[in-house]
Amino acid sequence: MKAAILEFSPSNNTNRVGELLKTKLEQNNITVQLVNITGNKDYFLTNNKQDFLQKTINKHDILFIGSPVYAHHLQYHVKDLIKNLPRPVNGWSKIAVPFVTYGGINSGIALDEAGKLLQKSGRIVVAGIKVSSSHHMTKAFMKEEYNKDQLEDKLLFTIGELVKRISLADLASLKDNSKYLKYQDLMIYLKADLIFREKIWHKKMYPKIAINDNQCIKCGKCVKVCPVCHLEQNKDKSIIRNMNSECIHCFNCIFECSQKAITPVGNLERAEKFMKSMIKKGKEVPDTCLYPKL
Ligand SMILES: Cc1cc2nc3c(=O)[nH]c(=O)nc-3n(C[C@H](O)[C@H](O)[C@H](O)COP(=O)(O)O)c2cc1C
Ligand code: SF4
Ligand code: SF4
């Protein structure tokens, strides 16, 4: 059996899950191609993403799609990625499994969105996983990174169960289980649709980044860690922004810049207050989970 794992992972949590999944699949004699589009210029700066995918992804029997949860939704680049998937013919499998990682606040409706989009692309969604992970960006405005200590055992067990289901099954006989990805109650759907509108949050709510040219030593490190190729260096190595690929507020560049030339701006107090109010609501139960449930 051959598997393809396609993922986007600005702060590496989703990639970590993708790598663990790859290892487990390989231990079960399944060949794996893992493609991480994070920071890939050939993907982000092309207008023909389907062509990129067609050329990059090998023939496979099962497709895994990994994404972070942003503002209760499937990160919008992963929505685009799924919309650009070639039809499931000529070596592209009909069988799909989405997985999402979230920062312990709320996994929102991301897994359900992934399932629906994969179904719309002609695929059979046999399972899905949500994984509670660290919330890296909170380091920019809170004393501690939220939800950073996660139990490895639970994640390994969950991935192991998924791989067991797949490797023991006759793939052709697997049925669509996307209805099980709709695990949230109506209130979360309403909040996701009416309040947490991801692109509006990027425009108006998340703290922005400011670049101080005088402090910049032109090392280029921030460019390397920008997951969407928003940051570039011009001829004299000064940092410029590519407005064809907008900032998604992961804050990798802030954490990477040793000179503190990149800083968050905006109402950081409001950001901290908001995050604290979300944290107060308590953690989602179950935190990490395979659907359909065991
Ligand atoms: C802009 C932004 C929005 C986020 N929104 C949510 C959210 O709504 N709920 C949540 O629990 N975590 C949220 N997170 C945290 C991420 O989902 C979490 O850290 C995820 O594991 C990141 O995956 P990655 O490391 O693969 O990028 C958000 C992070 C960022 C940067
Ligand atoms: S990491 Fe900081 S110092 Fe280096 S190029 Fe980027 S902004 Fe300049
Ligand atoms: S510019 Fe910085 S905060 Fe924005 S997406 Fe790139 S690395 Fe993340």
Describe this structure in words.
- With 294 residues, the protein is an alpha/beta fold.
- Helix content is 35%, strand content 19%.
- The chain has eleven helices and twelve strands.
- The strands form three sheets. Strands 1, 2, 3, 4, 5, 6, 7 and 12 form an eight-stranded mixed beta sheet that branches.
- Strand 5, helix 5 and strand 6 form a beta-alpha-beta unit.
- The chain starts with a strand and ends with a strand.
- The site of flavin mononucleotide (FMN) has 26 residues, from helix 1, strand 3 and strand 5.
Tally of DSSP β-strands? 12
Model regions low in confidence, pLDDT < 50 over at least 5 residues = none
The CATH architecture assignment of the largest domain turns out to be: 3-Layer(aba) Sandwich
Number of helices: 11
Shape: globular
Radius of gyration, whole Å: 19 Å
Q: What level of helicity do the residues show? A: 25-40%
User: What is the CATH third-level topology name of the largest domain?
Assistant: Rossmann fold
Taking the alpha carbons of the first and last residues, their distance comes to 24 Å
State the secondary-structure class.
alpha/beta
> How many domains would you count in the coordinates?
2
**CATH level 4 superfamily of the largest domain:** Flavodoxin domain
The proportion of residues in beta strands is: 15-25%
Bound molecules: flavin mononucleotide, iron/sulfur cluster
